[in-house]
Amino acid sequence: MDMNLISAVQKYAASKPATQPDPKGASETSLGKVAIDFAQTLANSEAAAKQAMIGDADPHALVQALAQTELAVEAAVTVRNKVVEAYQEILRMPV
To answer: What is the pTM of this model?
Structure first.
């Protein structure tokens, strides 16, 4: 497994607060939840940036929000690159 992928995912997971375990079990984890979490991270960062522009935000909160967004985007790009690489590998397989 690529070390950049592992590093990006670990940094992103470490930047998120710990949550309670899912009562339905780990099998219910879906890509939809990840996408919603990603979108929420981007929305939080955008809101912090808007507040900073009008002077209502703590600079530290803005930096933290931007760092979380950077990690989320880095993780998403790394995963996307791995998916594209796997797809290209499948295309190269003989039928």
So the answer is: 0.61
